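Ligand-bound model needed. cytidine-5'-triphosphate.
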Amino acid sequence: MHFLITAGGTREYIDTVRFISNASSGKMGYALAAAAIKAGHKATLISASDLQPPVGANFIGVDSTGEMFTVVKKRFPKCDCLIMVAAVSDYTPVKKSKTKIKKTKKNLTIRLKPTVDILAWAGKHKNERRATSDGPRLVVGFALEDKAVRAGAEKKLKEKNLDVIIANTPAEIGSDSAAVQIKMPGRKWLKLPRAAKTQIAKKIIELLAC
Ligand code: CTP
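Prediction:
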């Protein structure tokens, strides 16, 4: 299978040196790419993280949500499974200053506008013909929820027309281990107890490839 995987927290630039981002490390996405390669699959990793790419991955570095969307759209037709692990920024500055913003004594307001939902776009287009082979293309999301974890994740599964949603909590951010819960439409929740992200990634790839 050819896995298209996104990782890291996108960076939305305010001016030439400052950006809005989040605490995502990219470790889970990188572990998934490494696990896919180890299991004999192809992996394209679209990353907003500074981690060293896994050997054998087709690596594309990006900064912003807009850039990530452009690359996902380009690569989507050739993938068998998209896994959106990236912590995509939901907002981006309305205007990026072409020069470094100088400090003054006044309050500073930055106006933000919503970004495109990349995963929802993929959910809408997943049944379009694949460039490489026939058969269904899987679209997998990660849901980061700090309360009502299952309800929030199931809402995303349905609203974004996904095949699989993997729920996690802020406790996993930056950690080398993770505990996740996995849901597919019409199936029961599957719990993967806390383990190294490399182990969790191996199990997820096995599940998606079967
Ligand atoms: N996602 C995306 N594009 C966005 C926002 C999120 O593709 N603009 C993807 C993420 O990569 C993840 C999934 O959607 O796979 C869920 O992301 P999450 O941050 O948990 O939820 P949101 O949809 O952003 O909703 P909210 O922040 O309100 O929980």
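The chain has one domain: 2-209.
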